[in-house]
Structures are given as C-alpha cells and as structure tokens.
Amino acid sequence: MTTFSDLSVPQNICEALARKGITEPTPVQQLVIPRISAGENIVFQSETGTGKTFCYLLPAFSRCMHSPATVSPQVLIIAPTHELASQIKSEAVSLAAESGIPLKTALCIGGAPIKRQAEMLKEKPSILVGGPARIIELIRLKKLKTQGIEMLVLDESDRMLAPEMRDMVRELFSLVPQRTQYIACSATMSTYHVSLLEKMLPPLPSVEPSVEPTAEPTAEPGLETAAEPAAETAAETPAPIRSAAVRSSAKKTGEHRLKLVQLPPENVLKRNISHWAFWCEGRHKIETLRKFLAAVNPPKTLVFTAIAGQVENIAAQLAWRDIKVASLHAKMGKQERKQAIDSFRSGRVPVLVTSDLSARGLDIPDVTHVVQLDVNENEDFFIHRAGRTARAGKSGINAVFGDEKELRALARIEKRLGIVIYPKVLYGGVVRAPVESEGDTEPAAP
C-alpha cells in the first residue's frame, strides 16, 4: 500500500492527514503529487471526490516549508467561484493548524472589502487563494506583489477557460514570474483545454537549442501523449503532451510544455451512483420535486437548475410547502452565501437549491441525493452535478427531471458516459419503476 510518506510528504503533514482520517493517497494523488513536487507544469483530470485539492496543496506546503520566500505569496491558487476559493482556503488553514506549521493562507475574493484584503496581504501569507478578477485588481493597485510567486494553480480550470474568463487567465499568466510552475485541474479536462492553456502561457526566454539528438520519449503511466500540431490547426488539435525529456528540450527552445495526466476513470458514476430519470413537463417540475422529497425524505439533497434567476423561486416554493431549504446563487452577498452553505453542510437545512457555477467544486460531505431539474447536452454539466454525491467512496442517487426533449438528450449522455439511467415514476407516494420497466434489474438504492 502506498502511503503519503512514500510520496515524500513531510511527516507532520502525514500525521495531520491521518488525524483527519486520510491515510492512503488516492490514485490521482499517487500519480500527481510526485510530479508537482518535481516542479513539472501539469494539467490533471480526475473524477469528482478523488482528492484533487490535496494534489497541489501538499506539494505547496512542502515548498513553502523547505524554501520560504522573502517575498510573499509563494503560491497563488485561482478558483472560479467564491465558494470554492473559500473551501480551498479552509482546507489550507485546517491542514496548517493540524500540522503545527506556521503557514499563513489568505483569501481574496470579490464582495469583500478590498482595503481589508490589502491589509491582510501585509501579513505576508505564503499561500493566496482568490478569484481571478480580485487578484488582478490587487496586482494593478500594487497591493499584491507577484515576484515571489513560484506556483500558480487553476482549480476547476475548464470553467476558468470559458470564453468569458480567458482574458483574465491570460493576464494572470503575464503578471507572474517566468519561472512560475503552472498547475491546472478539474473533473473534466481534455487535450483541448491543454491547447488553450498552452497558447495563453508566455514563452520562456529563448536560448540556443542543443544540437545533440534527443531520444524519442516513451509515454509515462497515466500520461496522455499527442503529436505536435501545425500552427494553423492548433485551435482544433491538442497541444503536444510530452515526457520529461521533451519538456526539458522545450525549455531549451523557449517553449512551455504542459503535461496532461488523465487517470483511467474510477467509474464513480457507474459504481457508486444510482441514476434515475423522471419524465416531467417544465411547469410541473417544482411540484414533482416536492413530491420526490416527500417520497424519499433524503437527508441531504442538492438541487441544480441551469437558470440562476430561478434559484430563489424554486427555494421559495419549497419553503411555502414547509420544506427546510436554502438557496445559493451568484447574486447573493458573501455572508448570505456562506450562511447557506454552512446551514446545508451542518444538516440544519436538508435541501440546497443552486446554480451550476455556484456549486462548482463544492465538497460537501454526505450529500445523499442530487436532483437535476434540467438537462444540458454537454455531459460535463451532468458529471459535475452528479459528482456532488457519492464522494469519498460513498454511494448516492442522482435524479434527473426532464421533458421529452431533455430525456432524449439524457439518453445520448447515458450512451456517451457508458452508464445506465433507470426510468422512475412517483406513484402512491413512492418512487418505483414504470410498469413496462419493472423487469429492469437495478441495483439496490443506496
């Protein structure tokens, strides 16, 4: 059995993880932590709930402990939502306290007073977590010094590469030192995302390339490789993914090379989650949701809607039916959002209605049920939503409500992901299979 000590994680951090009940690194941690510790520029993709945050936090802690910088911060972690940024900061603070390491972590996000954040930066945090817009604003105001940054992390990076956020990512890359190590991760990453990142990275200083021949590299375990694209087709063709030998050669020619690490899927979607589909016209979805909650009485349910403006309306209608519910969306104030998450996380409120962006990357323990009130043709949305349940090896239920058109789209997602989605109906206050589907052999519900 591989341990965190085998990955050269400092002993006091290993002991702190053990006290948290984390004794064995996940497959993605076993593969990625040594590469990040070695200073590689890396993009890694792994299913939700597989411990991606510790993949970069543990090497970040080691670096700050063993090579403290004179200028702070050393590590800059960027997240697309306030909630995810706050969650990462909490993980870092908790790990430092549990390990007895005097390592400061600061949080800089929009919606909080920027003057207070500027004062906080004077305390010289080793790790800074924040949203891209606020971080850039602090740099422009000369409140945040970037010359000490050695590691830049993009969490939920597929979201960060959406068209509306790309310019901010590109600007961030231009503002950090050229020696910076780049790390990106998400549950849904591909060579296309690597290609986008490659084009955003500023080139390293050019030096005379070596004339010595370089042996053709072989693919490393868990490493996806691709041929170098022609310049005119770079937008459609995956960026070159090379072994360490080629990466060293790339440095000589003044080019960045990112490694894409993709683990074979652990089939969390297949093995740990029961997928249910309910036919429901749009105007009846909220009432069907109410009946579903009454029939199942789930301990902790996360309800997704693609329409952020409908979050409050859905929550209000459930509350009118005496269901304890909280809502989470981007237009809420920082304290309101924190209160909603805390009440749901603690179990005081068993239902949280949210938009896709607000829930990105949230790690809330013991979510037993996910309800999707609509279907997006892009399976990435399905993966991120369903992945909020069945975390850390637990089981869960993912229920999708859709009309005829949406269920056709769901069938295509089912095929592409290789999962089985069982049709269900609400009848007599219970969830059951339709009459024509009663022969289906669905595994017992968690």
How is this structure best described in words?
With 446 residues, the protein is an alpha/beta fold. It folds into two domains: 5-262, 3-Layer(aba) Sandwich (Rossmann fold); 268-437, P-loop containing nucleotide triphosphate hydrolases (Rossmann fold). It has 16 helices and 15 strands. The protein has helices at 11-19, 27-37, 52-66, 82-99, 114-121, 132-140, 157-160, 163-175, 191-200, 244-252, 268-271, 285-296, 311-320, 334-346, 379-386, 404-417; strands spanning 42-45, 75-78, 105-108, 127-130, 151-155, 181-186, 259-262, 273-279, 301-305, 325-328, 351-355, 369-372, 396-402, 421-427, 430-432. The chain has an eight-stranded mixed sheet with strand order 10-11-9-12-13-8-14-15, sandwiched between helices. The protein has a seven-stranded parallel sheet with strand order 3-4-2-5-6-1-7, sandwiched between helices. β3 (105-108), α5 and β4 form a beta-alpha-beta unit. α1 (11-19) packs across α4 (82-99), α2 runs parallel beside α3 and α6 (132-140) runs parallel beside α8 (163-175). The longest helix is centred in the first third of the chain and has 18 residues, at 82-99. The chain is globular. The two termini are 28 Å apart. Residues 207-221 and 223-254 have low confidence and may be disordered.
